[in-house]
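PROTEIN DESIGN WORKSHEET
SECTION A - STRUCTURE
LENGTH: 718
TOKENS:
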């Protein structure tokens, strides 16, 4: 190749490597201004040489990309399911740097005798196809884990030949035969644990009941299913309970006395623990005109839960508290979580308190952390505080209106202005609230209201968390940061394509900030596109995590952030408390050397327990919701498409926020292609399109409280 205008191997290889997605010959030719048949032949030959050298590899549609560690066929482990119900996996072995690429599993082709869907934990042999540098599709060749022997949670139903076990996992459609000798003490409708046995007569998979958990006729069983299905520990070791029972409030000693300051707790009416209290006043310092002085006091869990103790080991295993509509699984025993570590009004409580000073623009200008003794002046709810602020105080808030509540809102106004100027990602998404009556049944499912009182406490907690992270950073003290990375390049490309398609292009700024997304959200506010755009932007975001390596918090537009304000219910906050106590010399309960060497491992573990809790809480709400709607099968509902996948449409009902599936097989007669960029199913023959967030009318065809699944069909197919 001697033509002087033609790029060399190094130039073309550099172009392929710098691209965020695989590129074809057309893009390469356009980039280097190549044209004519001679140029095309030279380019074809050069790419063939690069491929022969192993410098690039050819993917789908003959597009070129840097070589990846993943082979064309690999053994995979199924690791999770996303919001659209699609399974993801990772290579069983991975020797590359960093995390392996993401792998999505294509739906399996149905075959005779195969009625068990894939589930988390399965091992399989699959053929891989690259979508881009960090994303693969996998098509299952065969499973290699036999009958997936292990333990299963299910509901026992009697039958003529003994009984059947119906798994609670909605992805697992197999019914297991339970022969009479394997029934144990299970009765009809009981929730049981069972061991999966080798296939019996006619290939029917069998199970042996090993533990009876209770009857599914009791609505409170739905939380129990979620707890056991996700492996959430529920029983504290005796030694941990003993340590909690022997604990006592410390004497004042070297602590700062905060008992005369009217700190108040502000939580939801259904809150089960109170671990933060707040107070504010105008700053009297003439150097800070129109500034504010805040105090955020947090329960001093580190005083009671010492590194290496039985309490500490139990709290670490749980990682966090888990909250269900009818119960909580606390991280700490009740003697602490609802006792000594709960900031009850009128009772002395040990605390760690940040004094925070903000200027007239809401900027945190300085802070001081103390170990104190406080006495809450009142336990308030968000609704009470909002009503008082709006001029409707009750007998509890009236005496506090001018001295406590009004200054809190004054300080909040400054912090809210700073947040707006900073440009955070403002996704104020609705949250389902399930209200349980005294009989344990669902009385109501509604969207949880959010007031300025909610946002006020959120801003105070963020300010304290920032202060905690600043102390760690300034003193080069290892700890756990709450990190939130920028969206990945593949997600950004998909998001840009989608937004461009609906007429709201997102620029290719090298320094993408949350404000770029917020501007798009404001543009579509009040339009039919608003719910759709919010959903797609949310799905483009990375998942927050815990790590000793600070990369900042993208969503909050903060350079440093650490969870400090909820040590009753998050072990990560306890780690931060201990790190602060150690570096500031605040007494006993500081971070120990053994923990210092394990912070990366601890961060990964706590990120995992957080995801486990979220999945369990979501599953329980789904089951309660299905139970609530079970007697309304056949009724018509309004909703929106909340997810689009190859196998159907996920619909979220307007009335309750309930989610269910419209199987693709029930859509009007056509073959539908899944347009991932447009988040749509498109009919090949009719062009009929079902797009994410589009309004739909549906009929509820099935509601299964045990699995938490619901099926719909379109009410107006045409």
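SECTION B - SEQUENCE
RESIDUE ASSIGNMENT:
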């Amino acid at each position: 190749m001697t033509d002087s205008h033609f790029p060399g191997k190094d130039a073309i290889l550099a172009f392929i490597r710098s691209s965020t997605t695989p590129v074809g010959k057309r893009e390469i030719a356009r980039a280097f201004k190549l044209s004519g048949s001679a140029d095309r032949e030279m380019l074809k030959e050069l790419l063939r040489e690069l491929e022969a050298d192993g410098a690039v590899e050819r993917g789908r549609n003959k597009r070129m990309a840097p070589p990846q560690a993943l082979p064309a066929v690999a053994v995979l482990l199924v690791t999770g399911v996303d919001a659209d119900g699609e399974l993801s996996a990772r290579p069983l072995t991975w020797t590359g740097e960093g995390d392996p690429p993401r792998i999505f599993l294509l739906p399996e082709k149905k075959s005779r005798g195969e009625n068990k869907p894939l589930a988390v934990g399965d091992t399989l042999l699959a053929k891989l196809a690259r979508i881009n540098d960090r994303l693969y599709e996998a098509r299952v060749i065969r499973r290699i884990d036999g009958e997936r022997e292990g333990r299963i949670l299910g509901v026992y139903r009697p039958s003529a030949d003994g009984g059947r076990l119906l798994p609670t996992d909605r992805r697992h459609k197999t019914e297991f035969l339970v022969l009479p000798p394997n029934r144990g003490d299970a009765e009809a409708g009981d929730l049981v644990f069972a061991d999966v046995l080798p296939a019996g007569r006619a290939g029917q998979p069998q199970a042996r009941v090993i533990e009876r958990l209770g009857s599914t006729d009791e609505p409170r069983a739905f939380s129990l299913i979620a707890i056991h299905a996700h492996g959430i520990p529920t029983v504290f070791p005796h030694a941990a309970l003993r340590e909690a029972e022997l604990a006592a409030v410390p004497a004042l000693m070297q602590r700062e006395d905060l008992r005369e300051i009217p700190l108040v707790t502000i939580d939801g009416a259904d809150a089960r623990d109170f671990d933060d209290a707040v107070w504010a006043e105008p700053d009297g310092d003439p150097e800070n005109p129109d500034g504010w002085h805040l105090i955020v006091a947090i329960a001093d869990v580190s005083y009671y839960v010492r590194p290496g103790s039985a309490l500490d080991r139990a709290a670490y295993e749980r990682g966090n508290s888990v909250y269900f509509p009818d119960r909580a699984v606390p991280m700490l025993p009740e003697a602490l979580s609802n006792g000594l570590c709960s900031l009850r009004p009128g009772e002395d409580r040990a605390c760690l308190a940040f004094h925070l000073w903000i200027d007239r623009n809401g900027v945190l200008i300085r802070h001081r952390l103390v170990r104190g003794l406080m006495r809450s002046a009142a336990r308030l709810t968000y609704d009470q505080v909002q009503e008082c602020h709006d001029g409707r105080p009750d007998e509890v808030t009236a005496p506090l209106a001018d001295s406590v509540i009004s200054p809190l809102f004054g300080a909040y106004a400054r912090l809210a202005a700073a947040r707006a100027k900073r440009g955070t990602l403002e996704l104020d998404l609705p949250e389902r609230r399930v209200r349980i009556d005294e009989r344990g049944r669902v009385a109501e499912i509604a969207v949880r209201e959010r007031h300025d009182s909610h946002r006020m406490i959120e801003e105070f907690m963020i300010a304290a968390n920032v202060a905690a992270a600043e102390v760690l950073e300034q003193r080069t003290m290892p700890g756990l940061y709450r990190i939130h990375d920028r969206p990945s390049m593949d997600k950004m490309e998909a998001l840009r394509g989608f937004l461009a398609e609906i007429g709201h292009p997102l620029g290719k700024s090298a320094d993408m900030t949350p404000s770029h997304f917020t501007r798009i959200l404001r543009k579509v506010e009040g339009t039919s596109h608003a719910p759709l755009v919010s959903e797609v932007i949310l799905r483009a975001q990375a998942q927050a995590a815990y790590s000793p390596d600070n990369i900042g918090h993208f969503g909050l537009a903060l350079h440093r952030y650490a969870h400090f304000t909820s040590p009753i219910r998050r072990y990560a906050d306890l780690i931060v408390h201990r790190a602060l106590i150690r570096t500031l010399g605040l007494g006993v309960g500081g971070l120990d050397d053994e923990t210092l060497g394990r912070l990366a491992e601890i961060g990964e573990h706590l990120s995992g327990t957080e995801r486990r809790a979220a999945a369990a809480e979501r599953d329980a709400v789904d089951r309660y919701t299905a139970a609530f709607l079970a007697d309304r099968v056949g009724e018509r509902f309004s909703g929106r498409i909340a997810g689009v996948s190859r196998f159907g449409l996920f619909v979220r009902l307007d009335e309750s926020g309930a989610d269910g599936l419209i199987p693709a097989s029930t859509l009007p007669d056509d073959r539908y292609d899944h347009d991932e960029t447009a988040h749509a199913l498109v009919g090949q023959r009719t062009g009929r399109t079902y797009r994410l967030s589009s309004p739909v009318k549906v009929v509820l065809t099935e509601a299964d409280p045990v699995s938490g699944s619901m099926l719909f069909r379109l009410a107006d197919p045409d």
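SECTION C - NOTES
Residues 599-629 form the longest helix (31 residues).
Residues 9-65 form a domain with the Arc Repressor Mutant, subunit A fold (CATH 1.10.10.10).
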